Amino acid sequence: MVAHVAETGTTATTPAAPEGTSETRWWREAVVYQVYVRSFADANGDGIGDLAGVRERLPYLHELGVDALWFSPWYPSPLADNGYDIADYRSIDPDFGTLEEAEQLIADARGLGIRTIVDIVPNHVSNEHPWFREALASVPGSPARERFWFRPGTGENGELPPNSWQSIFGGSAWTRAGDEGEWYLHLFTPEQPDLNWTHPDVWDEHDDVLRFWFDRGVAGIRIDSAALLVKDPQLADEAADSAPGEHPFTDRDALHDVYRRWRAIADGYPEPRVLVGEVWLPDAERFARYLRPDELHTAFNFDFLAAPWEPGPMRTSIDSALAAHAPVDAPTTWVLSNHDVTRVVTRYGRADTSFAFESRRAGTPTDLERGTRRARAGALLAMALPGSMYIYQGEELGLPEVEDIPFERRKDPMWHRSGGLDPGRDGCRIPLPWAGDRPPYGFSRDGAARAWLDQPDGWAALTVEAESEDATSMLSLYRAGLRLRKSNPWSGDGALRWLPAPDTALAFARGDSFACFVNFGPAALELPAGADVLIASNDLEGGALPQDTTVWLRQPADRIG
Ligand code: GLC
Ligand code: CA
Question: Residues with Cβ within 6 A of ligand 1?
């Protein structure tokens, strides 16, 4: 497996522009790297990644060539859902460090031209958040309970939940407060009570939290579960096929008022802050409504993430994303993985290469060599598409999903609440391997406490150190691809134009001399004569493009379609 890097372009880095004068539309083409702090790098040897670890590794991220870092929640949390249960939105989990360190990290990163995006979870708080403690300690009907969804039960003695809503992690979405009390709503775990977005306190609190982080120099927020905030006040049961906007807790129209208000706050800064939504919706038109000019700037393209590694569905996904974003003038995003989904090299090595929470099962066989080859081709495809790109830590190393975590070491409530049917998300959250030939692979120093999730044996070839020395590694491919991407080989606005290609391939041009070819089929694909190879995800075969390989070409302007 050899990557051809015929030309690496310039080594330009993002300039660190002072606030107020910088290019304010940076997010339209940004490469955003998702940092899952707990598994990134552990500086103090307690087996848990921390902010000091990220600060030490900023040069690595700079060299990789990313424009921004998105930090999964770094706030104090009892860890019922690994940090997505937040007890205090204005400070840092002591396992990770202090608020001062976060401010220093934001500033240090900015000094390297790297912006910071923090994760905001507005749908629910931790059951240890002061608001929920107060609500539990107070009586039914009290103002403290109004900030949540407390309701009497049904059944003779209120022993049944208020309605049939199911938690996204399995089981009822309602838990009873005490033996005889009211029930409260939680779309995720019982430790994540849902906020009531018809309550003015909830709005005001979020305005303030946004400003808190924006005032500390963060460039934007990633909005967790962004399509779930607003609930049907009647708490109607889910219908088999509700009309758009009428599902009782997903994608309700009143949500858009929240994001309009947040956009106004974000736009109030000299360098406008950016809103990125986690919007899982199958309907591209409904999805794009979140990206209207006075709402969110971008949202994760999960349709692309979930698409199988096949030319037809991939092309359909790309076309539908571009078509849905154009009317609202929002850039598409290209996402291959995150902390919730199966690692790319594992998924692409399976018989079914698509992703769906509902269908993933433990023990599904995979061919990692094949998956890795496809993931390389997929990475160059994603980098070549117009818009911004997200990279989840470890994706650039080609880390596989770890699937044999002993039951007693598993942390993810998705696994626990499904009774083990869903393999959960721990396997994509394993601490990164940095160096050396055995755990902790430089994640912690030798002799440190056991990592919060064990790293497997056999990752010696996947460390940053090993991959840095190997021109054929996934890391070398990501570095070279991102460097070339930054040199803007498509020039100008570079909108995408499909080129003629067999059914087993995708080919497109951008600008007047750039073309990208992806071959999915077993027969090698002849490439246009007279083109320069800028980069390829694997060896070419005598000038032809083999299966599961992507190539970027520079062609004379008059030769391109
Ligand atoms: C989002 C997060 C996921 C979390 C859930 C509940 O989907 O990405 O990790 O479990 O929201 O907050
Ligand atoms: Ca630590």
Answer: 81, 84, 121, 188, 224-225, 278, 339-340
